Amino acid sequence: RFSGDGVTFRAKLIGVLEVNAPRGDRLCQEALGELKMAIKAAGEHKQRIIICIALDGLRLRDERTGDCLYHHAVHKISFIAQDMADPRAFGYIFGSPDQGHRFFGIKTDKHANLVVVAMRDLFQVVYDLKKKDVEKNKQYSFDGSGNKTVSNKNPLN
Q: Which of 28, 67, 106, 148 is within CB 3.0–4.6 Å of 81 for a Cys-Cys bond?
């Protein structure tokens, strides 16, 4: 489901805002409200985008040109929240402690829950793949020269 271009959704980018923490429902609700007020005060239209949810992360593309505006690796998305006031709006926090965190506010074509559930499913798939990879690597050990060798699990040899 998430291979290649993954799952796509049509939406509009409400805006991007620097935030001071990696998570929090209240933080997200306030950021979303701030972005909505800013766009309303400016009298501008929200940018139409395509959200691509794939194994390599989340891509926000310009709907008209197809240009990639943002590409966010899954492991750097720290929080997702739906708007309490609008069922078609949601946002997520992306970043790291050393580079800061940014909130991305988005309004979807259909119910935002569809996108949020797809993102959560992606996180689970990526987590499961990582876990499988760690288990596979436990079967190997490294000799003194850095070469990978298969561990012998049979105690009789």
A: 28
Q: Cα–Cα distances in Å, from 80 out to 41, 65, 76, 108?
A: 26, 27, 12, 14
pLDDT of residue 137: 79
Q: What is the pLDDT of residue 42?
A: 92
- Residue 113, classed as helix, strand or coil, is helix
7-128: CATH class:
mainly beta
Q: Which residues of the chain have pLDDT under 70?
A: 139-157
3-state SS assignment for residue 45? coil
Q: Which two tokens stand for residue 47?
A: 């940018």
Domain locations in the chain as residue ranges: 7-128
33 contacts: CB under 8 Å, gap ≥ 6:
none
**Quick one: pLDDT at residue 154?**
46
N- to C-terminal Cα separation, the chain:
43
Q: Which two tokens stand for residue 136?
A: 């596979």
